[in-house]
């Protein structure tokens, strides 16, 4: 079972399924496999999820020195620092190895899931997703306060998503974006990503409005289980998802070698 804090634990099979859905929902440019380590690299966009080694089997922990060095060289070739993303699928021996070698821990995130039929998706105002990916791209850059230099990389990520994606935007009367959310319907799974609200419009219920609208959209497309992830220090996000009825499934954390700034 995965360690999940106060909520009931989920099986490793569920963790594997949500990890795979997460990879499909936010795809890396390149994915290499060293045994069951998924080495994800995206030179055009710096997100940690897209540039990290993801161990996917708790028994895969042989030749650690050799394999970690090979990963370091692969990351160095594209100018990225080596990062591991440690989920419950990571070998305990590998985690202990990183601990003993002084690797830092940062960016802890919580993966939530929910039975969509059991959570509160009050009707509110149903918003139709936009079909203009470029418009969503520009809105996401503004709302997340990302520099314009990341436009090509984010565009590449959004264009690479293979499961059906739905883009949601809230705008002010002048058409300026205030909030964004991305819904991915992957068979019976609904992933909610890229949720953000501009600072000046927070605490007005916009995030809840977009998330519930996005989830209702995925239910109409056949989704039955919702999932999303949020950084563990994002108190507003944690509170919102708990109130909606999501429960913690598992956590993951990033690991960086000594001397690597994070």
Automatic annotation (TrEMBL):
UniProt keyword Mitochondrion, yes or no: no
GO molecular-function terms, A-Z: acyltransferase activity, transferring groups other than amino-acyl groups
Keywords: Acyltransferase, Transferase
Domain N-acetyltransferase, residue spans: 128-262
Record protein name field: GCN5 family acetyltransferase
Signal peptide extent: none
Pfam families cross-referenced by the UniProt entry: Rv0428c_C
InterPro entries referenced in this protein's UniProt entry, alphabetically: Acyl_CoA_acyltransferase, Bact_Acetyltransf, GNAT_dom, Rv0428c-like_C
Organism: Aureimonas ureilytica
Highest taxon, organism lineage: Bacteria
């Amino acid at each position: 079972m995965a360690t999940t804090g106060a909520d009931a634990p989920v099986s490793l099979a569920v963790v594997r399924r949500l990890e795979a859905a997460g990879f499909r929902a936010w795809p890396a440019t390149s994915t290499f496999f060293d045994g069951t380590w998924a080495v994800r690299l995206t030179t055009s966009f710096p997100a940690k999820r897209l540039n990290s080694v993801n161990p996917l089997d708790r028994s895969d922990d042989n030749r650690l020195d050799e394999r970690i060095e090979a990963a370091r060289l692969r990351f160095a070739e594209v100018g990225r620092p080596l990062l591991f993303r440690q989920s419950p699928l990571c070998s305990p021996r590998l985690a202990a190895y990183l601990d003993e070698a002084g690797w830092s821990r940062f960016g802890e995130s919580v993966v939530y899931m929910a039975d969509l039929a059991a959570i509160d998706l009050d009707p509110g105002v149903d918003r139709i997703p936009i079909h203009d990916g470029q418009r969503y791209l520009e809105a996401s850059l503004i709302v997340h306060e990302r520099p314009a230099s990341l436009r090509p990389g984010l565009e590449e990520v959004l264009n690479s998503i293979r499961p059906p994606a739905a883009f949601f935007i809230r705008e002010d009367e002048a058409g300026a974006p205030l909030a964004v959310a991305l819904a991915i319907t992957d068979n019976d799974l609904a992933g909610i990503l890229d949720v953000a609200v501009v600072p000046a419009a927070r605490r007005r219920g916009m995030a809840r409005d977009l998330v519930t609208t996005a989830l209702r959209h995925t239910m109409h497309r056949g989704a039955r289980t919702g999932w999303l992830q949020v950084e563990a220090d994002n108190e507003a996000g944690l509170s919102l998802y708990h109130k909606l009825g999501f429960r913690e499934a598992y956590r993951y954390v990033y690991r960086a070698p000594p001397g690597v700034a994070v």
